[in-house]
Write a structure and sequence with these properties.
2 copies of one chain form a homodimer. Chain A has 9 helices and 9 strands. The longest helix of chain A is centred in the last third of the chain and has 19 residues. At the A-B interface, strand 1 and helix 9 of A face strand 1 and helix 9 of B.
Amino acid sequence: MLEIVSQNRCFGGAQFVYRHVSRETGTPMRFAAFVPPQAERERRPVLWYLSGLTCTEENVTVKGGAQRVAAELGLIFIAPDTSPRGEGVPGDPQNAYDFGLGAGFYVDATEPPYDKNYHMRSYIETELPGIIEANLPADMSRQGITGHSMGGHGAITIALRNPGRFRSVSAFAPIASPIHCPWGQKALTGYLGADQAGWRAYDSCALIDDGHRVGRLLVDQGGADTFLTTQLKPELLAAACERSGIPLTLRMQEGYDHSYYFIATFIEDHLRYHAAAMA
Amino acid sequence: MLEIVSQNRCFGGAQFVYRHVSRETGTPMRFAAFVPPQAERERRPVLWYLSGLTCTEENVTVKGGAQRVAAELGLIFIAPDTSPRGEGVPGDPQNAYDFGLGAGFYVDATEPPYDKNYHMRSYIETELPGIIEANLPADMSRQGITGHSMGGHGAITIALRNPGRFRSVSAFAPIASPIHCPWGQKALTGYLGADQAGWRAYDSCALIDDGHRVGRLLVDQGGADTFLTTQLKPELLAAACERSGIPLTLRMQEGYDHSYYFIATFIEDHLRYHAAAMA
């Protein structure tokens, strides 16, 4: 059962926020969906946007500015939450921002106590697509996926693990290799345990080295992003794409930081990139 | 002294949030300023945006989507806060959202205890323009003004009281006549006292009937706005413009509500309207 939390007319379409009880997380989950005006007449392609640390479905929905271009191009724009939430859902023991609530990392946790609710991989890969197909005027044969930071990692890894599902993949300032940065090491240890063999299914570069492929990849990265060298490390993704022959367009955007001002500036390019692939 | 709270590269320009101690309010005040890329070479026109109840300088800055068009058109986009804030600043005795903090109504209060800090008229009309002229690459001979709801009331009344200062005036869902709606009656009673003679300087329709004029006026109003008939009453503004010969373009936007989704949808039209007048 999909409950409408809010519905606002926007650029001739409608911005929805939905709530439903998730089978995967065992909690109520929210997601935002912009439905373009063209969807009144026909099923439209779907662009997924996976958000970064601390975010909910709200951040890109109110700050990203995607609706104007999505309305023009006729794209359904889906923004899920980033973790299970609510009573009984364990968070970070130190209440840090980079693990637990708002930091699901798009993995299926195997370590207690997180293994009960933190099934964000299956939620995004399996459960939510079924809900969208059943309830929205979506053409699921035409999907694209993008995301920011932790959500950029999510987008790229989900696309790599599900060949043929997405016509197009892009990312804003993605975590290139969780195995090789403090955010990722903390999250993967906490959700999956210390054995790094299990981490490779959640690392863009490891997935590529293990033979997974996407057709091509667009990445925008702010040159003034404070997380650039410590956490994001796009050079690792560039090297993996180079080794494997995946055509990567990596655009270093001088002066831009990790904020939604960066995303809002370049989101139009990404929507047009995805729409062209889904035409 | 103007202190930079934050600075983010955005659409080739820069989104600033500034803080300064205000002579008028006796408190620290924040305002947001988007400076377009063209301002690196020459002083640029200024568009003021006055926000509505509950808002700070942040709402339109993160939700309005004005920067993209302001960058294209070369406009400096200024978003002030809506009231004084901080220790010792009196709020609404009942902690309501429609008086006191976040609800300055762009008046100079005369009633204690509000008369000490609530000088939003003088702050916006006199103090802040001086700060902007002194510190930003602004061409103050080319200014336009707009706003939302309470800030639409602010924009129209400030333009009416300052003939010749603004090349262009517009509003999103403005309170047309504070004298004739519960929000306005509560605010004007609280800030100015029960004598309604003093209210006329803060009422678009009364100012027009008392002989004040603007060249023309653009207003967008959502048809599904829950405040339309109880608080906003655009028909009162339409009648005053009709009586006085002010050319009013009042666009009723079917299905749109009072939210920033409505503003984001139509803000491009307003920026182009102002830029054409300031060319």
